[in-house]
Amino acid sequence: MRAKNTNAIHSALWPVQNVQAFITTRHHPFEPNSLTSPFTSVDKKTNFTDFNLGIHVSDDLAKVEKNRQSLLKLLPKHTPIQWLNQVHGNKVHLLTKYSSKAIEADAIVTKRKNIALAIMTADCLPILISDENGSEIAAIHGGWRPLSQNIIARTLAEMTTNTEQLYVWLGPCIGSKAFEVGEEVRQVFIEQSIDFMSAFELLPNLKNNQSLKYLANLQLIATIQLRHLGIKHISRLNHCTYTMSDDYYSFRRENITGRMVSIICRL
Predict the structure, then answer these.
(1) Are 88 and 146 in contact (CB under 8 A)?
(2) Greatest CA separation found in the chain?
(3) 109 Cβ partners below 8 Å, 6+ apart?
(4) Phi and psi for 164 in degrees, rounded to 5?
(5) Which segments of 191-236 does DSSP mark as H helices, in order?
(6) Structural domains in the chain (count)
(7) In contact, 261 and 23? CB cutoff 8 Å
(8) Positive or negative torsion for Cα 63, 67, 70, 75
(9) How many of the other CB atoms lie within 10 Å of CB of 118?
(10) What is the CATH classification number for the domain harbouring 254?
């Protein structure tokens, strides 16, 4: 079933066959008149608005479950969604059988058809991976902590496809003009490679005795890691979840907020 609200989802634009891949927004896909601004929502006190898909964020569970049922309508019939309990670590799960319980991991790989892999985000970087023919897929929760712990490399190690034949899509995340981090975060990456220096911009005009602060580029960090690993085909949607408040949830902006979901499944 197609979404009635065309602003509600963004499909991955990449040359991959036999795969469905997209990210949701805070708009409901089947309510064309869903509210366009969190500040006019009936849920403005909690900033969940129309299409929160996270059950762990203090939203009304019945409403979230209803949203998750609506999400299923966007997938082929009888396609369950494999949810993860994401803990900002580097565990990768190789999925051979669907589980009705959320699996504790921050990345997931499968060759199974008609099981949708889901990654929840609200500023972190969703990373979707497939070979050209869609025979093997993966999804990664790319926060700075998982990235610093080499979750991309660990995910690729679980895949059988040659890295040069893989296609990667980087979804919306907090942008390079909004993601402020300390020196300790920058140092974690710089110690791995000086190539990461280009992903950090020093914030000017710091006050006396104030610790160094940088603007970090999550998509660039992931891109550098992917290039180091031999990935040649990288697509991206350069939307900033922090600044595009009408469309995306942002934990750093709102603290108490909903979650988008990035989905990938073999057809």
Answers:
(1) yes
(2) 60
(3) 92, 93, 94, 95, 136, 137, 138, 155, 158, 159
(4) -65, -15
(5) 218-228
(6) 1
(7) yes
(8) negative
(9) 22
(10) 3.60.140.10
Q: Please indicate, yes or no, if residue 68 is contained in any of the structural domains.
A: yes
Residue 208 lies in a domain: no
Q: Give a yes or no: residue 198 inside a domain.
A: no
The number of beta carbons lying within 10 Å of the beta carbon of residue 197 is: 12
| Residue with tokens 């603007």, as numbered in its chain | 215
Residues 264 and 19: beta-carbon distance below 8 Å: yes
Range of the domain at 137: 9-175+233-266
What are the tokens at 167?
Answer: 């296609």
- Written as tens digits, the pLDDT of the chain (267 aa) is 677 777 899 999 999 999 999 999 999 999 865 554 443 344 444 567 789 999 999 899 999 999 999 999 999 999 999 999 999 999 999 999 999 999 999 999 999 999 999 999 999 999 999 999 999 999 999 999 999 999 999 999 999 999 999 999 999 999 999 999 999 999 999 999 999 999 999 998 766 667 889 999 999 999 999 999 999 999 999 999 999 999 999 999 999 999 999 999 999
Place of tokens 């891949």: 21
Does some domain include residue 241? yes
What is the separation of C-alpha 248 from the centre of its chain, rounded to a whole number of angstroms? 12
